[in-house]
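Issue 218. Parser rejects a valid record. Input:
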Amino acid sequence: MKFLLVLALLVFASGAKAEWEVTDGNSLARGIAVFKKAELNGTLTADEKNTALFTVNYLRGFSGSSLIWSKIDKASPFKLPEDGIPTIQLIKVVKKYFASHPEQLHESADFLVYMALVESFPNPVFQKALQEQSRP
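Output the parser choked on:
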């Protein structure tokens, strides 16, 4: 519930132009940190509000499309729960992946979120297919 309140405040309080872009792990980590700041005390500049809002929307879109992929492709590299995961959980999954792999933060944000999902929600069907392919 707190997540929705913070998101609503960001949407309605933001009047600045969107100039933030998630490109790599560093920019995504910065956006997540700004969102967490909003969650803790709610005091953000207009630019920070845009950053947090864009970051959350980026992750929501990634999560939604990933859920569809894992539902229609039984051998997708990750298997999300049937109802997906809340965005706040995806944020935690991504932060955990970043903490374990700081040397990859220069990589594309899309690739890193994908890898975080693969690591956190491995699909046994995909893993089995990989093992079978690697056999001589």
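Fixed in the parser; the record now loads. Confidence is low (pLDDT under 50) at residues 12-16.
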